[in-house]
Fold these 3 entries.
Entry 1:
Amino acid sequence: MRRVLIVGNSGSGKSTLAGALTREHGLVHLDLDTLAWLPSEPPPRRDLADSAQEISRFTAQHDAWVIEGCYATKPVIAETLAAADAALAPSVTREPDGAVTFPTSAHVVRWTRPA
């Protein structure tokens, strides 16, 4: 996997999984939160077209990457999915005692581009 898209809800383990892939495979990491919000308090949502342009720049500049976030709106995610080799959707597991298990390979739904 050289280009990986990770999508999921807040707290699902996206950043944990992206960090592991970054370290293990030498990928460049982009957290979509950095593109979704303008730098003010409270942060307003950035224009979707601007976010999509930033993602396009990022993917053009890097051959090997992992992009993660919970933003599945069409202009933001469509081009990224088209460029990705794999798309992952991690999920955390809650144990009966309330403990949380973060993603392992057993907790990831995976799509890989057909050859």
Entry 2:
Amino acid sequence: MTTTKLDVKLFIQTCSVEEISELYDSLKARRGILDNAAHFKFSPGDQIKFDAGRRGIIHGTIESFGRGGRVNVKSTNGMRWKVAGSLLVKTGDPNPPPPPVVTEDEF
């Protein structure tokens, strides 16, 4: 049996203060792991996007990696952002590899 989001929400409603504190610490640790994983998914120069809430979707380029899983991004309008790695989505490669050359022998 798989656990659904509804199951988790119902569980949280029945938790004590101590259990909620433990749950919060576990979620915070998991978020840190996901943020730090960005170092393996992205490289400086990668084109990315992220949702900046009321400011909308921001497109930009990764400049470097900061502490705590933060990624330094320069947006297309020149603004610099420090974004959690888990919020980034790769949009394209600025230097894509050339398409493969297909010869008649390969048909």
Entry 3:
Amino acid sequence: MGTRYRLHLISSYFGSGTLAAPARNDDRNLRRELREGLPWAWTHRFMRSTSLLTVWSRFVINGLFLLLVAIVRKEGGSPTLIGIMLGIGAVGDVLGSLAAP
């Protein structure tokens, strides 16, 4: 067992007790929060442009995946091949997220 895990184990044992769950705020209202949050995001140029770029990039990426599937099917590829190709992409996504700081 590494030193880091030992230190974590010791600090957990001598910690200040159990962690309490954060207090729930039951008076939350989704419509009210959207009414407050969307105008705020729209008035901030960075948030607006980042949100719009994210939405459009997701449409483009999903369209490219659909195009890939259509081309492979047209060229006679099997559903197994399509699954393997998309699976390899998913593994790359997971590895990329693990490599991120």
